[in-house]
Structures are given as C-alpha cells and as structure tokens.
Specification:
The protein has 15 helices and no strands. By secondary structure, the chain is an all-alpha fold. The chain has one domain: Orthogonal Bundle (ABC transporter involved in vitamin B12 uptake, BtuC), CATH 1.10.3470.10. The protein is globular, with a radius of gyration of 21 Å.
Length: 365
Amino acid sequence: MSRRTRKLRTPGAQAPRRIPVATLVGMGTVAVLVAVVFATGIGTVYVPPLEVLNAILAGLGILPSSAVAPTDLTIVLSLRLPRVAMALVAGAGLALSGTVLQGVFRNPLADPGILGVTTGAGLGALLAIVTPYGKPLGFFALPVFAFVGALLAVGIILAVSFAAGGQGRGDTVTLIMSGMATSAIFAALISLTVMLSNQYQVTSYVFWTMGGLANRRWEHVLVSLPIVAVSGAYIVLRARDLDILLLGDEQARSLGVHPTSTRVSLLAAATFCTAAVVAMIGPIGFVGLIVPHILRLLIGPAHRPLAVAGIFGGGVFLLLCDLLVRIGARTSGGDVSVGVVTALIGGPYFLFLLLRSGKGKGAFL
C-alpha cells in the first residue's frame, strides 16, 4: 500500500466493499419506485400509495382510467408526478456532474458550480426576464436563455484553458482559475443588469435563483430528460477512464487514455447535465457535492459504480428534500424552495467535512 493510500484512510478503517453495478441498479430502482409512490401521495390532499400506484398504471395504459377516481388521477398525473419526475431527473443530473468534477479535479469537494455553470445560467435567465428577445419562445424563453448562458460560460472557460496551453496537472488548475474569473465576470454583469432592471424583473430573477420544483410540468421533464439521459449514459460509459486518470497523465497515456480529450469530453457531458437541470429549476446547491461524497464512502471510489449509484441516489435525495418542502407547505401553507432545504442539509455537512479534514489531516478524502 502506498504512503498516499495510507494517508487517505483513517486508522483501522476497512476499504468499502465493492458492489456490482447490476446490484446497484436493482437497489436503486426499488428505492426510486418506493420514493415515487410515497412522495406522490403526500401533499395538501393525501392520496394512499395503492391509489397512486393505480393512477400511474392507468396513465401507462396498464389499468383502465375508470379504475381510479378522477380526482386522484388528476392530482397524481397532472399535478404531482411531473414535479416528482423533475426532482428525479434534476437530482440524477447534478449527482452525475458532481461525480465527474470530483474525479477530474481530484477533489471530493468539487461541485457543478466550479465551472461557472450557475452564474452563466443566471445571466441567461436574467436576460430572458429583462429583454424582449425571449418573448417569441414563450414558455421556453427562460430555460433556453439559461441553458445557452451556462454553455457560454463553460465554453469561455475551456477556450481559456486551451489557449493557456497547460498540460497534465496544470490543466485542472487552469480550469479552476479560469472558472473563478469567468464566474466573477458573469456575476458582475448580473449585478449591472439587476441595477438597470425594474422591481418586478428583479423579483422574478431572485425567485428563480432560489431554485425550486413548484409548478413544474411535463414540458420541463421532456426537455431536460433527453439531455441528462444522453450525457449520463456517456458519463457511465467513460467512467472507468476517470479511474485511469487518477494514476497520472503519463500512466493514462500508456494505457490508451488521452488525458486532455478525456477531461474535456467528460466536463462537457457534466456541463450539459448541469445546464439542463439549472435551466429548468434554477440553481440547486450541494446535491452534486454531498451525494457523490456519501456514495463514495459507501461503495468505494470506482467511478462507474459511483456514477450509476449517483443516478439513483441523487434523484432520491432531491425527491426527499422536495418532500420535506411539501410536508412543510401542508402544515404551514407556505412553499419553501427546495434549494433552501438542500443548503440547510448540505451546508452543515460541508462544515463537518472541513472539520473532519482538519482533525484527520485529509482522512475524509
């Protein structure tokens, strides 16, 4: 065992048991189905799990619509299930992005915001609100502008990284520094635009920045799902290359993996995942940070099982956070943004990681 491996483990700790990918898929599918049935039934009007299941089967054409009460059918299929589906897609996309970024940057504290996706999407969303150019797009104006803004930010970062000509470990440093600079520029443009906007436009933008799943419709799901699915499939297929990159660039080249192209392609896939999610529901923090980190502690550092587990773990985590929001709304009458809940969970956990890192000299890595 190398000195680095000994440093990264706590005294007496055992290596996580490797779980086959097929087992992870089976466990994750069961967890998602159970979470969907119970989360869909909870709200202002309670729908029993059996009725939820019957409504879903009726929506799929397996059961006749007459087998379910019309009210339950409307509540489940038109009101709650789109929100539940959007939570699953968003959580999966953010967790996959976090897995890639933590692997590429060799830092378990990296998250999707490190590449400026959030600030780029924020500027795009703000321009959709304050300018007339998005009006022809109607319902899709804000998501489209946010998606384009996110891709523009990452495009600038990658262009600067290539122009700098960094190689090996310098590539990641250049990416991080250019990401910080680009995020600062976009944040300044956001501040300037906000100063020149009226109160209604500023309020709309602030509401979007909170990130939320309220009033999500099937249109949101159908637009974001293909992007997350294609990008996620690519990430899972190339996940083993991340394991090889951890050996070093020279070793990776000897094993047939080109470090620069692998990093860029995986970062591009992670960007598409994050941009598709942020464009639909706004910025949601900490999902891409804590979900991959917790799963790494449970199933080990191999990136393919980690990516597969992240698809299910991220979706269920965000769905449960949204369930807390809806339970609170049921009792208090106010609907809090799910981004607030993830921050309240992720913030203390992040501080716990920092404290543990200081006491254990990096043991949490």
